[in-house]
Design a protein that fits this description.
Length: 302
């Protein structure tokens, strides 16, 4: 009987589609064309002689029972292959191979591209792939090994993930240029509660923002909610309310050109710690350690 043969790339595509729920989203996440992934999945199904996914019109893909078992096996094979790469890197002292880095989407645009540029210039044999997500998605990615590490805040961190703090970031209140508080040197949560708020409504982040008002007499007046940091900036800059962030907009305007003013938030407010989050055992990888060291040396915010 001829043994079944699959490439590691085919297995990677299989896992990516299983986690994304669609070929298009998987292709976007791993920066591969959708036809390449479709062909790989079709070849695997033909070789195995069983369907791996159920195609649902307009609803993406879902794993068959056999597909779920194959994905679990594929993850084991990919983990073993990564282990061999890590071993070879350690023996030779070479930083190379795939590196999957997650980043909290609220600050990806101002943190990760610059860090990535410096890292891949120094280590050109690293295949760097980045993924943006909220805190919940980052936890999931680290636990299911689709991420090697992530840059994020210290928001409700679970005990099974290891966090290395790198930067302390106090909160700022964001206003449009005409807001009555925009020219203050600092404001407190009590100063804000009478004004409408634009809330960045992301898992775990929303709890942090609301905790800043724990000691105020009344709750903040939430006028708008959004999951997009650029939309939040634009709503604030156009006078729909203030918001709170831990990284100052740079330059000081929204995407549509309207001005934003950042004022330090004073009082009994907890700063965020920005750092690197790792799953158990990830620090044994030479490539992961190299990126963590790179972050320690070069991570800055505007």
């Amino acid at each position: 009987m001829t043994p079944l043969r699959f490439t590691l790339r085919q297995l990677e595509y299989l896992v990516a589609v299983a986690e994304a729920g669609s070929i298009a989203l998987a292709a976007h996440r791993i920066n591969v064309s959708p036809p390449s992934i479709s062909t790989a999945i079709a070849q695997m199904e033909a070789t195995l002689g069983l369907p791996l996914f159920v195609r649902k019109h307009a609803h993406g893909l879902s794993l068959t029972q056999g597909g779920a078992q194959c994905v679990a096996q594929a993850k084991q094979v990919l983990a073993a292959a990564a282990g061999m790469t890590d071993l070879a890197n350690t023996i030779t002292g070479t930083v190379r191979g795939p590196l999957h880095v997650g980043c909290l989407l609220t600050f990806t645009q101002v943190i990760l591209p610059r860090l990535r540029r410096g890292f891949v210039d120094r280590y050109p044999d690293v295949i760097f792939r980045q993924f943006e997500g909220d805190q919940s998605a980052i936890f999931t990615g680290l636990r299911n090994a689709s991420l090697d590490l992530a840059l994020t805040y210290d928001l409700d961190l679970p005990a099974d993930l290891a966090f290395t703090p790198l930067l302390r970031l106090p909160p700022y209140a964001l206003f449009d240029a005409g807001h009555p508080l925009a020219r203050h040197r600092q404001v407190t949560p009590d100063d804000l509660v009478g004004y409408p708020m634009v809330l960045l409504d992301l898992p775990f982040s929303v709890d942090y923002f609301q905790s800043l008002f724990a000691h105020t007499a009344t709750r903040p007046v939430i006028a708008e909610r959004t999951r997009d940091i650029a939309v939040m900036h634009a709503l604030v800059a156009n006078g729909f309310g203030y918001s709170i962030a831990n990284i100052r907009p740079s330059p000081s305007h929204a995407a549509d050109g309207q001005a934003l003013c950042a004022v330090p938030l004073a009082g009994d407010v907890r700063p965020m710690q920005l750092g690197v989050l790792l799953p158990q055992g990830a620090a044994s990888s030479l490539t992961v350690r190299a990126f963590v060291d790179h972050c320690v040396q070069h991570l800055t915010v505007p």
